[in-house]
Amino acid sequence: MMTTAISPTTLRTWMDGAKRVCVVDVRDDDYNQGGHIRGAVNFPSANFTKSFEDLVETSASAEAVVFHCQFSQVRGPQCARYYESKIKALDSFKGQEVCVLSGGFNSWYDEFACTKYIER
């Protein structure tokens, strides 16, 4: 199963109203390193499988769920794959798009460092 990678620009467009999106930051102790994406929810990768049901509830109204970690090389994609495999098995699944933010928080920060899209 291959999750879709999206660019920071695409995510920003969605956040600006093109799509109901839930941004999931799976960073652990590094969660506040440089801040975080405005409105993102933190579900640390270390406890991700235990908090899956909470995330399903949190993201229920989203058309797309976008995962990221610092670089989106390991934790973000792993959690996205886990979420996607589990969510598709639920009766309540309504075709949510599951994506990974290309380049992770680092690429987001590079693009939007001094904007309203970063919270500290």
TrEMBL record:
List, in alphabetical order, the Gene Ontology terms for molecular function in this entry. Answer: arsenate reductase (glutaredoxin) activity; protein tyrosine phosphatase activity
Entry EC no(s): 1.20.4.1
Question: Which Pfam families does the annotation name?
Answer: Rhodanese
Query: Entry's SUPFAM superfamilies?
Result: Rhodanese/Cell cycle control phosphatase
Q: Which reaction is this enzyme known to catalyze?
A: [glutaredoxin]-dithiol + arsenate + glutathione + H(+) = glutathionyl-S-S-[glutaredoxin] + arsenite + H2O
Q: Does the keyword Oxidoreductase apply?
A: yes
Boundaries of each Rhodanese domain copy? 17-117
| GO CC terms of this entry | cytoplasm; nucleus
Could you list this entry's UniProt keywords, alphabetically sorted: Oxidoreductase
Query: What is the protein name for this chain?
Result: arsenate reductase (glutathione/glutaredoxin)
Native organism is Yarrowia lipolytica (strain CLIB 122 / E 150)
